[in-house]
Amino acid sequence: MPATDPRVDAYIAKSADFAQPILAHLRAVVHAACPEVEETIKWGFPHFMYKGMMCSMASFKAHCALNFWKAELLMAADEVNREAMGHFGRITSLKDLPSKKVLASYIKRAMQLNDDGVAAPARAKPAAPRSLEIPDDLQAALDAVPAARAHFNSFSPSKQRDYAEWLTEAKTEATRTRRREQAIEWIAEGKARNWKYEKC
């Protein structure tokens, strides 16, 4: 019986209908190829660990992504679609994925790199940090709750961006209002946007 993390179950269950079979398939292939794998949640999405970071998967509004931690070493000679966040492009259905055999071979090679203690190549830092724009309605809501404003100002730019993007991604005004109210409640308690997935 593979060791699974209930947070990954919850992540899959909360994902869009199109994404659930993709994520379940990827999870099953990883476990089949690497029975010793450990699941966890890092940066808000599922990661698979084997003697360190091995690979991760994520779902978005209209696609999924699969990412290997040492992809530069695994895929140097391969023609891999490197669009979107992952290394197989925008995965919108199971048809967008390589066969189980091909995926398993990547996983086995990733395991071997970790067995051999090969470090991931150093990643170049971006030339300029992404601009951080806080929506006016979030600014006003923060100003109305001093505790929330104080905590928000102490957050790292990435934590602030998580809340800003959560609001701007809302498709309706009602959703945006609900998210803003929830955000202020969490921020006033000093919680990051993905606090549920953070280890204590």
From TrEMBL:
<dbReference type="InterPro" id="IPR014922">
    <property type="entry name" value="YdhG-like"/>
</dbReference>
<feature type="domain" description="YdhG-like">
    <location>
        <begin position="20"/>
        <end position="111"/>
    </location>
</feature>
<dbReference type="Pfam" id="PF13376">
    <property type="entry name" value="OmdA"/>
</dbReference>
<protein>
    <recommendedName>
        <fullName>YdhG-like domain-containing protein</fullName>
    </recommendedName>
</protein>
<dbReference type="Pfam" id="PF08818">
    <property type="entry name" value="DUF1801"/>
</dbReference>
